[in-house]
Amino acid sequence: MPIAVAPERPAVRSTINRMAPPSGLGDKVFKWFTLAMALAVVALVFLVGWQLARGSSLAIRRFGFHFLATSTWDPVAEQFGALPFIYGTAVSSLIALIIAVPLSIATAVYLTELAPLWIRQPIVSLIEMLAAIPSVILGLWGIFVMIPWLRDHPFPFLKKIFGWTPFFSGPIYGVSMLAGGIIIAVMILPIITSVSREILRSVPNLQREAAYALGATRWEVTRIAVLSYAKKGLFAAVILGLGRALGETMAVTMVIGNTPQIRASLFAPGYTLASVIANEFTEATTDVYLQALFEIGLVLFGITILANLLAQLLLKTMGSTIKSGAVQ
Amino acid sequence: MKNSHLWRKTKNALASAASFVCALLVIAPLALVFLHLLRSGASAVNWSFFTELPKPVGVAGGGMVNAIAGSFELLGLAALVGVPVGVFGGVYLAEYGTVRGNWLLRFVADVLNGVPSIIWGVVVYGLVVLRFKSFSAYAGGLALGFIMIPLIMRTTEEVLLLVPAGYREASLALGISRWKTIVHIVMKTALKGIVTAILLALARVAGETAPLLFTAFGNRFWNHDLSEPIAALPLQIFSYAISPYDDWHRQAWAGALVLVVMIFFVNILVRFLTRERVARVL
Amino acid sequence: MTKLHKLSGRFLGLIIASGLSATASAQMTINGAGATFPYPIYSKWFDEYAKVDPSVRFNYQSIGSGGGQKQITAQTVDFGASDGPMSDENLAKAPGKILHIPTVAGADVVTYNLPGSPALKFDADAITGIFLGQIKKWNDPKIAALNAGASLPDQEIVVVHRSDGSGTTYIWTDYLSKISAEWKKKVGTNTSVNWPTGLGGKGNEGVAGQVKQTPGAIGYVELIYAIQNKMPYADVKNSAGKFVKPSVESITAAMATAQIPEDFRFSMTNAPGNDSYPIAGATWLLVYEQQKDAAKGKKLVEFLKWALTKGEDMAKNLDYAPLPADLRERVLKRVDEIKM
Hints:
The complex is a heterotrimer. By secondary structure, chain A is an all-alpha fold. Chain A has twelve helices and four strands. In chain A, α2 packs across α12 and α4 (117-132) packs across α7. The longest helix of chain C is centred in the first third of the chain and has 23 residues, at 2-24. In chain C, the strands form two sheets. In chain C, strands 1, 2, 3, 4, 6, 7, 8, 11 and 12 form a nine-stranded mixed β-sheet that branches. Helix content of chain C is 41%, strand content 19%. The chains are: A mainly alpha, B mainly alpha, C alpha/beta. Chains in contact: A-B, A-C, B-C. Chains A and B meet through α1, α2, α3, α4 and α5 of A and α1, α3, α4, α5 and α6 of B.
């Protein structure tokens, strides 16, 4: 999906607002109508927050903040804690970022600075196609193709070399935190690449020209003039990718192993906030169980808001408004 | 130093090569997935796939016609919700409002874009399914529509802002009222872009599974009443793929292939529609 | 405005067509949700019954026993299905009285992924040890002692269990709680438990798939899933000390010895008798005694009667044990008590 950078243009609006003819009934009605439509997003945010809070009120009262620090998830004993899922979401997202960010930014750099012109549009189109692949299909590919391959080739290799560290120790099942991270990486590659591309394009040509004038090679221009200028924006692109990674559900559920535990090894299975909701929501038979799941949803919602807030603030200080247009 | 220049040129070449490899790595999953879909699913994409209902467990054959139709119906319902709210909300952001207020609205829309789709399923479950005590196509359509709203809103805003101010000024100078200016001049000019926005949002939600799990529910037969459960392509693909039957696996891949091709088709259509407008130098 | 008109026109047309077809066709849809365990036999029944009575369609989604219980309580479906009986607590939460209608019985089998797919035998100790995470390798003496001829590799055992709320899990944990006090204390019996070890798969299908794909894996699935997937499954030692192969006969033997109370909620795990398979359980359809929709209720009752008579004859072919004749009579009487 094309991402656009829209520099704020208050000039247009204020000019028109000053010039507009005396408002007739039609104008008033239309303005309020569109305002009502726009306010729908605010209503939706409150709706989501309210539904989640209402659905988890009992659990919140019962577990309090301990919910965020407990690692037991026991439906029989009715002890619930979100820690394994927070851990799972955090670790899988981190792995995804570690894999995706260098690849995406390098690709964005290639597409804006280094690639021959004729090759740019085809690659951009292909990346947008990748973004269009539904999560469930990627997840299926994950279980049937990626996991067996991972289990037979890269994982044993990693274990051989890094097996002495806690991160690559333990048995290899195939489904694992690492597999979860990899599949999320595949899903967030397009969005980080797109936004980074926009950021890099918005770097004023003057910067590049100045560097060229000093005799820099293409790569040096990129490194010195473009990347350092765009640092903040690129960081914001990363945060947007993170926001997307946090909410990824179907694909992760199929490859991460669905085990609520906290282990150092990346080969061990894990569980994310979104996955536990997907797996257990329709089946939570007791009230507390259901409420605990709503509370997990609330935690996820909160984290998503924070990530977006961070990205927007960063972008604001860079002077442009970027639309995240997050593709699922 | 003679070496320095050569070294800098080498670095340049290396950087180009390295970033090209990265670009290939980014595209690689796309190729891999698509190839796998073709290999596993192409054999099962036949006439009966597009015309027959699912057969029971253990019986070979059958198709996913109800799931394909169901997906279209859900998209239709979603569009009923998402298009008016999204488009006219985008109109507000582009034409009216204050700098601060609009920033807030945009921020909220971006937050909504980042809400995991499963949460929408949970919300609509509480709002509609429990209230009316029934899974339904309406609930599924509503969940998808909610996802579409912030998406369409932001893209519409972008597209409307691209319409030159001069158009508006000329229209107002002729005495045409503000709202008529917006609807008949601005929106009409940006129509292609708005349609693009809608198509892209539809393509996006067409592949959603999570929000439909608790709302549309799934249906092995035709849906005759929108207040009843309905089949959808992603749901059917999912439940077939994790089943133990080889025949169903093949059908799942076929379904996945069909879904991906439909989505790609929409993307290509969009690219075609926006072709002339964009004179970008990449 | 033409393109927009065309698009919206098309969508609107589709919606209206659906609405019209709703009034045009008199076909009723009855929705159900629940267990994955009996899914094969239920889907066969629904398909056959559609030929018997074309005016009604049964739409069943296998989301897990826990889901079946929850959705019938919330009245979002017309009937539920569960392999674990509903607890008194949960029954109390429902807005009306829910009846348990047993339909067939099946078996939880122990399936595994080893090179050469040897035929293995397990006993209570071995299974409990493995699933508690105490027995970690395939060549552990406890397993080797039971399987003298088989070549057991020096490989880690990968336990696979259900990640969703499941009646298959209920039957499994019910069995383990009966044979192991340690399990009962540590984990307990439920559709969803805090597993000491292992990976989670979604549905019987997910577990079967996971075991099939992971060398050294062991898991529990309903008999038909192991058969359909051509996966090996083990003989298990029953309470009489005999190693029994899971089959329709051994399940029927287990059911014959079960004590079945008035409300039909019974357990048949670890059943006595030489031929009984120890990890077997019945599966129930959950319906309200007082149906809220008379027309649907009538069709539902007709179906239940058909299932409990004609349907039962189809069970054996799919490796489910049909209910014994006397139990069937009792259940049919209960079905008569359903009020519209």
